[in-house]
Amino acid sequence: MRLQSSLLLVVLLVLETQRHVALCKKKGDKLGGCPPDDGPCHQLIPNQCSNDHQCPNSWKCCSRACYLQCVPRVFVKLGKCPVDQLRCLSPKKHLCNKDLDCSGNKRCCVSACGRDCRDPSKG
What we know:
two-stranded antiparallel sheet, about 20% helix
């Protein structure tokens, strides 16, 4: 019984590791994603980082208004957000702020009129 429990634990750890590997966008990226960037660009500020390795601990180098800055990472679900080709004629309205705001496998994606929960595309 103890051997089966140990084997199950090893399998779960391997699967979790592979899931995290799939979330990395390019070689050297830290796990997770960047929080939404809704800030207006009022003044040009120099970038504070150019890649994740310049950030402490698990923080990521993310876009903030019109510059890059180290910020705490956010959890990201599997799959990519679909690209919205529409143009919004009304004010933007955000129905979510992060993937965890969405049920099931849905992701919080940028659409023409703000962020909303959508089914991700594969890959």
